[in-house]
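Hi R.,

Here's the chain you asked about this morning:
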Amino acid sequence: MAQDKLAELRELLGKLASLIVAAGATLLLVLLLIAFARGMNPGGTAAPAATQPATVAQAGPTATAPAGMAHEAETPAAAPAADPSLIAQGKQLFQSQGCGACHTFKGLSSGAVGPDLTDMAAPAQEYLKDPKYKGQAKDAAGFVRESIVDPNAFIAPQCPAGPCTPGVMPQDFGKRLNKEQIEALVAFLLSQK
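And here is the predicted structure, written out as tokens:
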């Protein structure tokens, strides 16, 4: 009898812990959105003006992003080797745009709202094959690029607090970031193997 009560108590504590994590993640997201709405980055300072972007060579045909997007979700025919300065710029953008507040990236951030972005190449290839994928990307770089400018093109199946939901990731990175900044983020996110 006592063991049944103990098992029931453990189950209730587990459910309570899950609710607390979900509530904390939601609160963090709301605070982050408020900070961005006020033109602030998560550090509390004014959001930096666009940095001088690195030049990125584009190759091959491009796919058009959904109507209303400021930038196209370009898909190069072959992903060029990322240059270290482009990766460094992407890392800086990942931090200054608050990506780490929601996403884990090994050695850099431990966000608990969105999916883990460490080693994105392998999952991106799998997501492209998923029947639920409704985007236009043809490779991992295209998938990551599209996920930045059109985050609802595919919703990752699992987030830290449970199933991922549409509309959580800000929908305006395609307007806030220029093409070179987006390419830098893509290079950074695909740089970890």
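One quick note: Confidence is low (pLDDT under 50) at residues 27-79.

Cheers,
M.
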